[in-house]
Every structure is written in structure tokens, then in C-alpha cells.
Amino acid sequence: MGSVSLKIGDGTARFQSATVCSSAVNILMIFSVITTNLFALYAFTASNKHHQSQHLLLQHAHKNFSLISEQVQLILNEIDSSQKKLAQMEKQLLGYDTIDLSRPNIAPELKLFLQQHQLPLGKDSKTGITEMVPSVGHSCEKSSDLLSQYMTYKVYGSCQDDWILAQKLILRACEPLPRRRCFAKVVSKVGLYPFPDSLWKPVANKTVNWSGLSCKNFQCLNGKKLNRECIGCFDLLNGYESQRFVKARGKNDFLIDDVLELGSGGIRVGLDLGGGSGSFAARMAERNVTVITSTLNVDAPFSEFIAARGLFPLYLSLDHRFPFYDNVFDLVHAASSLDVGGKPEKLEFLMFDIDRILRPDGLFWLDNFYCTSDEKKRELTRLIEKFGYKKLKWVVGEKIDSLGSGKSEVVLSAVLQKPVRV
Hints:
By secondary structure, the protein is of the alpha/beta class. The protein has helices at residues 16-49, 54-94, 108-113, 144-150, 163-171, 218-222, 256-260, 279-285, 302-308, 344-357, 374-387, and strands at residues 3-5, 117-118, 131-132, 135-137, 225-227, 230-231, 269-273, 290-295, 312-315, 329-334, 358-371, 390-400, 408-417.
């Protein structure tokens, strides 16, 4: 999900309209104070001119002082009320709450991280900025207690073994997370194989962090159906994983070599969304194609396993904007991980981001996408047609649900070519 920079100097980030309104209110209040004091001064000097008694002067001055105090208090109350209204207006305009750092349970390290830092040489001539402002995901406000727990540690000490907590925040759209000033837990990487032997060699249990997971070894994971993309996916020797993308089990299974032949201008670099244990990237690496695999460690150490194979894991949720420049990938591969759920607009946002990073004439490979209903298939088909992609391959078939329900489900496999837009 997107992120927002939080300026901490004045408490919250204001829209320009809110700032102008606030300034106008404050000017009006200051004018009222000046007017009241001038009136009091006039009344005081007028009484001197009429030679009233000292007793009456003191009594009148005391009364004026009381009136002035009351007026000042009323003005201060108005200013406080106006600021609260402006803060409420800001929340309504922005659509989210900023993190309130005045809360007593906010970790000191979180406050320090979110402080703005002035540039040492003033305004930067190239960017126009005068300060560096760290950012965190705006949804972190909804999980501020968990975020403070994540940011509670001994500076220059060891971080807590809390990757599960960090992932929980990410899954709650608290992304990106703030940086920390502690040392992450070290896991020995003894027994790793050199590349390219590492692509299909077993990964040792001791090379990954098993804390927070129900399984404590890969043998346990191979007996589980973690998701449609990972059923025995950690078994690189005996299971189907070693045959994926090079041997078809049905008409919806496209072979890598067949797809690569469709690439106009050659396929050199790609992105695999929710790529399981990284076997798609491994097969591409054998063909001198660099593929980045986006993944999270949901129920298994996917990121560490992919890295142990000599491949590039990207620890990122699909709610986050891809951290890549426009038109840089020759190929984007996605399977059922593309089903992000929620309203149709959520899938549209994801598709537009895929389209952004995919170069013109690049390929979008939709691999065995499970359509939970005919309406889901129609929605996806209409969405693809809106983008104007050329259908190089398009196969709709049926498969028995691999997660064990026994039901036959509709699956869509397609290779689509991005148009050259002018």
C-alpha cells in the first residue's frame, strides 16, 4: 500500500488550505487581543483626565483587568477549538489519521525515526527540498501499539526475534516499516552451494530461521499444502517441483521455452509475483534470464529458501507499489496470487502497476489462475481487454482443486503482450 511522509515538527502535515485557514483564525484572534487592550488603555487614561479618586481608579482598573483576562481566555479557547476543527478537517481531507506521537505508549525510537532532519547546506538546488522526512505506511496508525512494540529495543543491541511481528504489520498494510538501530538475528549460512549448482540442491534446515513457524524443518513443510503454488514446493529432488515449467501436466501448463519464443526483442529480466519457492526464477536462470521473486514468509521461510538457491527474493506484499521504475521488465509472471480479493478496483490498481513496470511488447504470463466463479473469470477478462493486450496464448480449462476440496475449478492461463501506446 502506499506510504506517506509524516512531518513531526508541527505535529501533523497540513494541506495548504488548512494552513491558510489556521493563519487567518490566529490573525483574527491577535487583532481581538490588541483591540481589547487599546480599549482598556483608553478607559484607564480617560479616568485620569476626569480626576477620579484613587479608589475608583484602582477599582476600575481591577475590573478592566478581569475583563481583559476573560477575553484572553475566550480567545485562547477559540484558538484551541479552531485547531481541533482544522485537525479534524485534515483527517477528512486526507482520508487517514497521522500517527499521534504525543501518546504515552509511543516508543522513543519511533519518535526519533519520524523526526524531520534539516539538510546541512539548506535547500537542495536539484530537488528543492530543505529537509529529509522519513516515511511509514499510513495504515500504521491503525496498528500503532504493534508498531511501538516493533520499535522497542536496545540501541546498538540485538533486535528481538520478531520477524513475525514485522510481517503482521506488513499484512495490515503498515508498509514500509521504519528502520531500526539494532542488529538482526544472525542465522548461520553454512552448507550453501555455489551457483548454479544451488538452483536444485536441497537447502539445509539450519540455514533458515524457524522461529514463529509450526514446522521446524523442510520435511515437515513438504507434507503440507501451504497454497496452490506450494504443495511440496520445498522438495527439489523427489516431487513435481523439479518438473514445473518444463513438463506439462495439462493444457493450462505452458512451458518456459515456448513462452520465451514469443518474446519480442528477447526476455532478459522478469518479475514473478508470489513465486512460491522460486522454481520459476530457477528455470529462467538456467536460460540466462534474471527473475526477481516477490514473496512473504507466510507459514514457511520462502525468502530464505529462495536466497539459498542463489536467487533474488523480494520481501513485499502485493498491496505495496512495486519499487521499480517504469517499463523495465521484459516479463511478469503471476498465478493465483493475483487474486487479491476485495473490490474489483483493488485488482485494477494492481494490474495498472504491473502494466507500469512492464515494457512495451513485454509479456504478462498469467499461469493457472483459479477463477472462483464465472463472474470472476468475466471480470478478469474484461479488465485485460481494457488494457488492450494482445492474446498470444489463451486457455481456459478445469482442474481439481489442489488444496484438497475435490471440486473441479475453472483455471485460466494466458500469455499477453503489452501494446505500444503513443
